[in-house]
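Title: Comparing notes on inverse folding

I've been comparing how different people in this forum approach sequence design from structure. To keep things fair, I'm posting one structure and asking everyone to reply with a full sequence. Here's the target:
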């Protein structure tokens, strides 16, 4: 059975995708809409999502833009409340929103960058997961939570001696996502739900925040092999179309020839 056939179980179901205005989030949202899902894109910038929606025609599903800053709890509650009132609830959550900053952990006046990274990459993810699980459990659905992680959630990139490190708080936040995914898995079992959780950890991706962030400071990044955003979207489709008794807990995908 090909992926299109396996995706039929999601036709008409509701997906929430955070950070859908970015390269990876946009690719994921696009594939889910093409598969017939009702996609609610949570983003601070409506214009980018509207541009994506305008490019989708003759597709089975539909794309909605829900303005939301996932670091603001009231925004998250309002967004999920609107989705529940409009569509009945959430069946799939893709936690894709993330940020990376250039500041060092030991740099002066870096507090704002530190908080922004942790509040977006960790707290925002947890707030959205909390609201999604509430919706899924209330309706007793076979739901799924996808955490778009990173290879930096499993290893810290080694800086060349004498050069400015580019890691900062980002790997710490992604290591946290690795741990949070396992904690969520255990909680979903405890809550007696039919909800799966998966972490997908890509290497460098064209147009994503890590590639864009490091390219200007590290010439080597320009020449590193990269995945396409559609490759990450394909990984999401693979994870959510496994049989009911199979859960992809961690999926690491790298471009051929990656050397980080």
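Reply #1:
Here's my take.
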């Amino acid at each position: 059975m090909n992926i299109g056939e396996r995706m039929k179980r999601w036709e008409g179901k509701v997906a929430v995708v955070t950070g859908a205005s970015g390269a990876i989030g946009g690719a994921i949202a696009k594939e889910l809409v093409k598969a017939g899902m009702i996609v609610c894109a949570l983003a601070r910038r409506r214009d980018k999502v509207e541009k994506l929606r305008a490019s989708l025609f003759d597709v089975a599903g539909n794309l909605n833009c829900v303005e939301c800053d996932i670091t603001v709890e009231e925004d998250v509650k309002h967004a999920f409340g609107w989705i529940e009132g409009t569509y009945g609830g959430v069946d799939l959550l893709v936690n894709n929103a993330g940020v990376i900053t250039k500041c060092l952990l030991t740099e002066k006046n870096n507090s704002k960058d530190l908080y922004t990274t942790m509040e977006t990459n960790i707290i925002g993810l947890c707030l959205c997961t909390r609201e999604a699980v509430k919706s899924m459990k209330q309706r007793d659905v076979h739901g799924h939570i996808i955490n778009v992680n990173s290879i930096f959630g499993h290893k810290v990139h080694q800086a060349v001696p004498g050069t400015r490190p580019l890691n900062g708080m980002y790997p710490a936040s992604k290591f946290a996502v690795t741990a949070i995914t396992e904690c969520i898995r255990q909680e979903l079992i405890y809550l007696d739900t039919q909800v799966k959780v998966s972490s997908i950890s890509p290497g460098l991706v064209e147009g994503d925040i890590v590639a864009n962030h490091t390219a200007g400071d590290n010439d080597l990044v320009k020449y590193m092999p990269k995945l396409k955003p559609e490759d990450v979207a394909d990984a999401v489709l693979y994870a959510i179309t496994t049989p009911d008794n199979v859960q992809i807990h961690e999926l690491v995908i790298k471009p051929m020839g990656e050397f980080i």
